[in-house]
Amino acid sequence: PAEATRDDGFTVLDLPGAGVLATDAGAWEITARPGPPLPGTTGGAALSDEVVPPAEGTGAGLILQSILFAFVGGLILNLMPCVFPVLALKAISLLESSDSTAGERRMHGLVYTAGVVCSFMLVAGVLVALRASGQELGWGYQLQSPWFVAALVYLFFLMGLSFSGVIELGAGLAGVGQGLVEKGGLKGSFFTGVLAVVVASPCTAPFMGASLGFALTQPMAIALTVFLALALGMATPFLLLSIVPGLGRLLPRPGNWMVTLKEVMAFPMYLTGIWLLWVLGRQAGINAAMLVLIGCLLIAVAVYFWKRPVRWQRGLALVASLGAVFVLTTTSPLSEPVPVFSAARDDGSAFPLTADGDALRYSPDRLASLRSDGGPVFLNVTADWCITCKANEKVALGTDTIKNAMTAQHIRYMKADWTNRDAEVSRLLARYRRSGVPLYVFFPGDGKAEVVLPQLLSKEKVLTAFKVGQGS
Question: What does the alpha-carbon distance between residue 148 and residue 306 come to, in Å, rounded to a whole number?
């Protein structure tokens, strides 16, 4: 390989490399790649931006810390907006079972927990296996499939119709209805746990990112243990309500008002379906969203004719149902999506954030180029299906306060979009030991240490990071 000799006598190899730099302060993962000539040389390799500090703790202590963080993250996941429709659904089932025996309520809590745990273990197993095969995937990877998002649109549309009283899907699907303490009711509790995990996939709660990022770098047994802790954390609130008599007695008595409550809860289901349809449009284009809307119309046609007593009309319902399935499984916009990117700019210019919120689109080389001039850069790793990301942009990053601060301090704004699969963004997340979005990193420039922001942002937190990074 080519060599370059510095004025101070050090020799620099002009080739990519990677390794671990051990110092008295700890170990650091580093990579280097050929770059601009170093001072005092005619060539050389510049240290890349891919420098990641070690996780705190080592060995068993780090494993226990990750398990604890995963459990706490699972608890907080119940409060995230993407899980709200299922929590509302389960709250109704709790109210309807308030006259059940203690043993029956305890069994529903255990079966619901089993549904959550089995779903998390399935997701974890598939995720770990795919990563072991070389694929760059992380938490929420299911939402990167337009087909999966379209299927969720159908699901929430059907659940909305059921809550509205248009159709009766029975307790086996959602865990609601009069047969809650029968066999079908237990099935309902299990599949409610499954559904809770499915709709939680767009969210990353505090403490989750670091723990899951660590888990995905560990052997299978440790990874599954961390995911198990996350599942138990998510299932714990409902499990406690079902097995602790004192907590169960705090619930109001059932009555006719519950019918109205259930019908009102249909609207969050429809709203979730609309949001998912928007995500699909961002992923695969307006044609894909239109086709799924046609599929929803066919579902409505099927429901209308299925309730008719005449046999040929029920035949029409079957045809309409098959049409909805055909739209979901065979149409090209879903199987061969054309990504619709956000307004992030592709040019390589280094500019302060403008009033209209322009951002540069992420690439490793572009980030390295921006950082090489010594100026500050703010990196937002996001996805359209990540509700946490969108909430942070609404309450913090998209506000005039933050835009003006970035402009005043000449902070360049860069977005890394993980809406669809992107190996470069996946590797970026892996460098920071994160398994999913959001991730926010502020690079102050001038050789100062980068600042990783929390997953839930406020204007104050962002401004504080700017001050800390700038050393003011």
Answer: 26
